[in-house]
Write a structure and sequence with these properties.
Length: 135
C-alpha cells in the first residue's frame, strides 16, 4: 500500500469517527476523545517522520510530538481541538518548506497531504463545535 492510499485510509477513518454521533447515538465526548487521540497519533507520527526530511531540524519534530502528546493528556477538550488543528496546519507548512523537491516530484502525495490537512482540520472544527453545543 503506498503513502497516498494510507493517507486516504486515515482520512476516511477520521471522517467516520466525526460522523459517529449522528449515525449512532454515541456520546459526543467519546467520539471527540477518540478523534483527538487518533489525530494526535497522526501528528506525532508526522513529527517523527520529519527527522528524515531534508533541511529539517530534529528539535521541530520533537516539539511537534510533544504538543501532540500534550493534546492527548490535556483535560480541556476544546483546547486539545485548537492545539491539534493548529498543529496539523503547522506540520503541513513545515513539510512544504522542508520537502519541496519531493513534493514537486510526487504531485499525488502532495495533493493527498493537502486534502488530508484541510479535511482533518474541518473534522476537528466539527467535533469541537459538537462538544460545545451537542445539539
Amino acid at each position: 500500500m503506498n503513502q497516498t492510499n494510507l493517507i486516504y485510509f486515515a482520512l476516511a477513518a477520521c471522517i467516520g469517527i466525526t460522523a459517529l454521533p449522528w449515525v449512532i447515538s454515541l456520546d459526543v465526548l467519546s467520539a471527540a476523545d477518540f478523534l483527538m487521540g487518533l489525530i494526535a497519533i497522526i501528528c506525532a507520527f508526522l513529527g517523527g517522520m520529519s527527522w528524515s526530511w531534508q533541511n529539517s531540524n530534529p528539535t521541530v519534530g520533537i516539539l511537534i510530538s510533544f504538543f501532540a502528546l500534550l493534546a492527548i493528556f490535556i483535560s480541556n477538550i476544546f483546547l486539545a481541538h485548537i492545539i491539534l488543528a493548529s498543529l496539523l496546519n503547522i506540520i503541513w507548512w513545515y513539510e512544504k518548506r522542508c520537502m519541496s523537491s519531493y513534493l514537486e516530484e510526487n504531485p499525488k502525495y502532495k495533493k493527498a497531504r493537502e486534502i488530508a490537512t484541510y479535511v482533518l482540520t474541518i473534522c476537528i472544527l466539527i467535533s469541537g463545535t459538537l462538544v460545545l453545543n451537542p445539539y
